[in-house]
């Protein structure tokens, strides 16, 4: 068997498997997000080096991990609400509400900038 052909075949197999793992990881993350439920005032936000450098919010006395796009939009002192079964976080800052949404259909963990309450349960 030609070694060049074998190398190319192995590379294609590895690349294909990495796409499958990426899709599976995304689905698992979205399931994890759906099950999360929390509310309170953000006391601190930090990179948790002990937990694989995860971006973490301290809400009251509990820690919650967030992907970059969401983490970047939340500040210490914000009040946040994440309801179980939903893909949005309600962020209250200076008495103003902003909905920050997870979207599983674009790049890895993006924010849905076209959010409307009508499509909340369809994601």
Topology of this structure?
Layout: H1 3-35, E1 38-48, E2 54-59, E3 62-65, H2 68-71, E4 79-82, E5 88-93, E6 96-101
Antiparallel strand pairs: 1-2, 1-4, 2-3, 4-5, 5-6
Question: What can you tell me about this protein's structure?
Answer:
With 123 residues, the protein is of the alpha+beta class. 30% of the residues lie in helices and 30% in strands. It has a six-stranded antiparallel β-sheet. The protein is elongated.
Which features characterize this protein?
elongated, 6-stranded antiparallel β-sheet, disordered C terminus, 2 helices, 6 strands, alpha+beta, 123 residues, single chain
How would you briefly describe this protein structure?
This protein has 123 residues and is of the alpha+beta class.
Shape: elongated
Structural class: alpha+beta
Q: Which H/E pattern describes the elements?
A: HEEEHEEE
Most strands sheet:
6 strands, antiparallel
Number of helices: 2
Q: State the helical fraction.
A: 25-40%
Reading side by side through the largest sheet, how are the strands ordered? 3-2-1-4-5-6
Mean pLDDT: 74
Number of strands: 6
- What is the percentage of strand-forming residues? 25-35%
Low-confidence stretches: 104-123
Structural Rg: 19 Å
Distance between the termini: 48 Å
């Amino acid at each position: 068997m030609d070694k060049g052909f074998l190398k190319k075949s192995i590379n294609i197999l590895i690349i294909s498997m990495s796409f499958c793992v990426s899709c599976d990881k995304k689905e698992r993350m979205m399931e994890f997000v759906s099950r999360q439920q929390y509310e309170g005032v953000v006391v601190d936000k930090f990179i948790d080096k002990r937990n694989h450098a995860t971006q973490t919010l301290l809400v009251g006395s509990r820690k919650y991990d967030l992907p970059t796009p969401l983490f970047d939009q939340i500040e210490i002192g914000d009040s946040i609400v994440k309801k179980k079964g939903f893909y949005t976080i309600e962020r209250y800052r200076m008495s103003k509400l902003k909905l920050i949404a997870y979207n599983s259909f674009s790049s890895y963990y993006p924010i849905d900038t076209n959010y409307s309450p009508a499509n909340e349960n369809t994601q």
